[in-house]
Amino acid sequence: MLQSIADDLRASLPLDAMLPSETTAHHKMQQQSRPTVHVDGFLYDDEQVDQLCEEGTMSRSYCLTCGSCSTAALDFISHSFSVSELRFLFQNVLPDLSGRVLVDVGSRLGAVLYGGYVYSSASRLVGLELSSEFIRLQNETLQKYKLTDRVQVLHADVCTQDVLLQNADVVVMNNVFEYFMEPSEQVRAWRFIMQNLRKKGSLLVTVPSLQESLSALQEALQPGWVEELPVDYDVYLGRDADADTLREIHLYRVM
Ligand SMILES: C[S@@+](CC[C@H](N)C(=O)[O-])C[C@H]1O[C@@H](n2cnc3c(N)ncnc32)[C@H](O)[C@@H]1O
């Protein structure tokens, strides 16, 4: 089902799976110190990227001296979890989610919601997303694949969702803000989350670590808010899984 959803989404999006309206994200990618392209990990696995490179539709490298063979590797980033990361998240990082409510902050294409439907028993999976176009795309997918019994998406800024955060059992934040909001807005959003994700024992999954996200903003982690839980990264998830990417997934428990 996840492959079929990815096929549908690939057909409705441009190759870089980004919207013209994502001006902040486009701008931030251009500002990276090395040439960086977005290749969505949910839509394109390594084999598909290889095939597109062979066809000449995609490239893994850029020319250092135009017209010569002197090339360097492009940096790839993904704004979605890949299927192997989703399997790792739901089968190796999180506990049994029966009867629990999971909130994906910034649900974008909906990868976490579809992965959570397939790989977990969460009773409710709620996606929050700023972009109305991605909300429409997710809603079409939820209807087509009949996932609405457990999955719901809201067109909302996380900073308006205090009650949802207060009642969530699991909150997933996969690099939500870095490319999509200016630093001052990111600080405001993190403070809102630290204030409202307070239910004792609730779990928070972040990519990258809280320390990395907050220190880049020179913002302090509220003392006594969460404790980091160990994750076993030494599992084999097939050729497609990238060990370095999995190590970016961190798990915390609200104290
Ligand atoms: C990196 S994507 C995460 C995708 C998805 N959670 C996954 O793991 O596959 C981040 C998304 O968060 C959305 N976003 C950024 N700031 C947000 C906010 N304050 N409230 C809700 N969504 C937000 C962006 O529009 C973007 O689509």
Architecture overview:
With 255 residues, the chain is of the alpha/beta class. It has two domains: 2-77, no CATH class; 83-254, Vaccinia Virus protein VP39 (Rossmann fold). It is built from ten helices and eleven strands. The chain has helices at residues 2-12, 23-30, 46-55, 83-93, 111-119, 132-144, 162-167, 183-196, 210-216, 243-246, and strands at 36-38, 61-63, 71-73, 75-77, 101-105, 124-129, 151-155, 170-174, 203-207, 226-229, 250-254. Strands 7-6-5-8-9-11-10 form a seven-stranded mixed beta sheet. Strands 1-4 form a two-stranded parallel sheet. A hairpin with a 7-residue loop joins β2 and β3. The protein is globular and about 60 Å long.
Task: Describe the SSE topology.
Elements: H1 2-12, H2 23-30, E1 36-38, H3 46-55, E2 61-63, E3 71-73, E4 75-77, H4 83-93, E5 101-105, H5 111-119, E6 124-129, H6 132-144, E7 151-155, H7 162-167, E8 170-174, H8 183-196, E9 203-207, H9 210-216, E10 226-229, H10 243-246, E11 250-254
Parallel strand pairs: 1-4, 5-6, 5-8, 6-7, 8-9
Antiparallel strand pairs: 2-3, 9-11, 10-11
Helix pairs in contact: 4-5
The protein binds S-adenosylmethionine (SAM).
S-adenosylmethionine binds at residues 79-81, 104-108, 111-112, 128-131, 134, 157-159, 174-177, 180-181, 189.
InterPro entries: Arsenite_MeTrfase-like (IPR026669), Methyltransf_11 (IPR013216), SAM-dependent_MTases_sf (IPR029063)
GO molecular function: S-adenosylmethionine-dependent methyltransferase activity
Pfam family, one: Methyltransf_11
